[in-house]
Design brief:
The protein is mainly β. The chain is about 0% helix and about 55% strand. The chain is built from no helices and 11 strands. It has strands spanning about 5, 10-15, 20-25, 35-40, 45-50, 60, 70-75, 80-85, 90-100, 105, 110-115. A hairpin with a 4-residue loop joins strand 7 and strand 8.
Length: about 120
């Protein structure tokens, strides 16, 4: 069972960048696909990005294509989300989780807040 701990969120102006980290404990990290999700106030949690076990496969929600990049470090059981050209509509709590396809599987962490000011 993967237990994720997210970090790296903060307040940034529109057009800025942030790098989120997710340290995962438990399970066998290198054998799992991992993903990032986000939940904005009053909205349902949505898929943002996923990465395959070796990092060779990635997938993004349309709104993140060209702006976000997901990567992983299997030696350190960590998955990252590099976000650039941030927009106010990217404001949300960001979570990582093990995924099957683009569907979350298993435990959620506490999330990390990203706030993008106009």
């Amino acid at each position: 069972q993967v237990q994720p701990v997210e970090s790296g969120g903060g307040l940034v102006q529109a057009g800025g960048s942030l790098r989120l980290s997710c340290a995962a404990s438990g399970g066998t990290f290198s054998t799992y696909s991992m993903g990032w999700f986000r939940q904005a106030p009053g909205k349902e949690r949505e898929f943002v990005a996923a990465i395959g076990r070796s990092g060779g496969y990635t997938r993004y929600v349309d709104s993140a294509v060209g702006r976000f990049s997901i990567s992983r470090d299997n030696a350190n059981n960590t998955v990252y989300l590099q976000m650039s050209s941030l927009k106010p509509e990217d404001t949300a709590v960001y979570y990582c989780a093990r995924v099957i396809g683009t569907a979350p599987f298993g435990s959620w962490g506490q999330g990390t807040q990203v706030t993008v000011s106009a």
